[in-house]
Design a protein that fits this description.
alpha+beta; globular
Length: about 150
């Protein structure tokens, strides 16, 4: 099975959220995904990258965020990783409206869960967080809710 991989490492600055969005939108367009799916991919990548910058690195700009895309015939797998502060309680962090920043809505993980077919969050305090999201491209393998 043919697999295409893209890896992008960038500084933890807000301007790079747009670049991550453009990359995933370009990949979605190459895969001939519907416009709505591409918009959802852009939102999920924005949320994951923003979480890494705002929460993982607490706005510290000299750190690195890793965005990995793995595309095959059946799935688009998106991984966003940081080496930041980590999430003490992943289950709590994934609850709607939970945020460590009172200025934020706390809906990032909610969007990721509703727009993607799979979501996994691995986090270790003081070591970082990896968010892995999968979109099924072959609609016959997608769950009925998507």
């Amino acid at each position: 099975m043919k697999v295409n991989q893209l890896v992008l490492t960038f500084s933890s600055v807000a301007e790079n959220v747009g670049i991550a969005r453009m990359l995933v939108a370009s990949v979605g367009a190459q895969l001939d995904l519907p416009l709505n799916d591409i918009e959802e991919l852009k939102v999920t990548v924005s949320e994951a990258v923003s979480n890494a910058i705002i929460h993982g690195y607490r706005g510290e700009s000299g750190r690195l965020v890793l965005l990995e895309l793995e595309i095959n015939k059946e799935t688009l797998k998106i991984t966003v990783s940081d080496e930041g502060c980590g999430i003490p309680d992943v289950e709590q962090a994934m609850q709607p409206a939970f945020s460590t920043d009172p200025e934020r809505m706390g809906l990032g993980f909610v969007f990721m869960q509703s727009f993607m077919d799979e979501l996994e969050v691995d986090s270790t305090v003081n070591q970082g967080t990896t968010v892995t999201m999968v979109k099924y491209l072959d609609r016959s393998t997608a769950s009925p809710s998507h």
